[in-house]
Input
Amino acid sequence: SVFNNYAGARHLTDRGFRPDKAMVIHNGIDVNGMFPEKSIDGPAIILSAARFLPQKDYLTALKAIKILKRTGGNFLYIIAGYGPGEGDIRRWIKELDIEDRVRIEISPADLPGLFARSHIYLTTSLKEGLSNSIMEAMAAGLPVVATDVGDNRYLVKDGVTGMLASRGDYQQLADSLDKLLRNHDMRMEMGRDGYERLKTGFSTRQFLDNYLKVLNDA
Output
């Protein structure tokens, strides 16, 4: 059995799949060209891009943004996606009094462009496999602030390519975001390290080579 993440492999081997017959091959994504430099003009853009589902735990993200608003940092939080939780997200934004710091973009036509214009990627998921959106953020040169769930730690090296936090810990998430908002050089360094990590460890070529090895060894 081939899994694309360790979280899924552990879940199913705990339920009867033979561990000696299970292996993990992570998905790949290609990055080409030069590292994408980021402008420091205007507010820093914090981006989350995911479906509006309970497992994405947007309430925790918005509570972190509430704390950031109190610090007075110059930022805008953009939530890109769609789904049944849209009404709840809009209500939480209003209740937390952060309407001036949050913008919702429903199914944006140019999602790659939105990643390119952003400065920090935020994900507060309660569970994950291997996150495609984190890989897209790293390909765009963004430092990632993420909950330490699923295979996030295989992408986000804490303190190097971004920062990890416990599930639901909006204060820890806010502290990590605040550090990045205050330090453009740190954002660029972490974004560059993440870009290189993706290029060397999660390429499509490696993904294909790993599958070919399985087939050739069969």
Summary: The mean pLDDT is 93. The chain is about 45% helix and 15% strand.
